[in-house]
Amino acid sequence: TMTVSLFGAVTALFGIGILPYLFLQAAVAIFILETVNYIEHYGLRRATRDDEYAHIVATNIVLCINMGRYRDGIVLAIEGLRRFGIHLDADISDRDAMRLLAERRPSYEDLDIASLVDLPEMTDPVMRHAMALLEHAGAAAYLTQPALYAVFCMEMVSISLQAGNTAASSYGYSGLGVLFGSFLGSYQAGY
């Protein structure tokens, strides 16, 4: 009923010539929804290898974000990360995230940025997949759950320090730097 009301209002406002565009928009929306449903119901069940699974989850996260379903994208990432041995709380409170950030701060303050560049390239495929999921879900967390965004950044940095760098590592490093400055007031640690 909401769609019919919207179509009626837009048609009244712009005239009957707008109808082909409205129907095209509806067709695209239906196609995207069907794609997401297919991936959720068939793709994830049929994925037998970690790389297939990670690719399907990452694609689905991006589709959810593009449709404004941020929470669904975050839930997919949290579930996907469990497959790779990373257990995060999707409903972490701001207070708990700040406490965790403050606890980890000393271990990050001693790092030299130049030493981050010299880390080896990450070769562990499981951790590469985990980093990709964290990176894709980072945008949804940033927009809707800043506390979880902080946890995602910390997790990306921890994985990078242990397993080496990927392209996603810079996302975690820069996000953590912003968090140190804006949330903890420690701009020096952010640099």
Architecture blueprint of SSEs:
Layout: H1 2-14, H2 19-46, H3 50-66, H4 70-83, H5 94-109, H6 113-117, H7 125-144, H8 146-163, H9 169-184, H10 187-190
Helix pairs in contact: 2-3, 3-4, 3-7, 4-7, 5-8, 5-9, 7-8, 8-9
Can you describe this structure?
- Helix content is 79%, strand content 0%.
- It is built from ten helices and no strands.
- It is elongated and about 65 Å long.
How would you sum up this structure in a few lines?
With 191 residues, the chain is mainly alpha-helical. Helices cover 79% and strands 0% of the residues.
Quick check: average pLDDT?
A: 84
Largest sheet: none
State the helicity in percent bands: over 70%
Oligomer: single chain
Q: Which regions contain 5 or more consecutive residues with pLDDT less than 50?
A: none
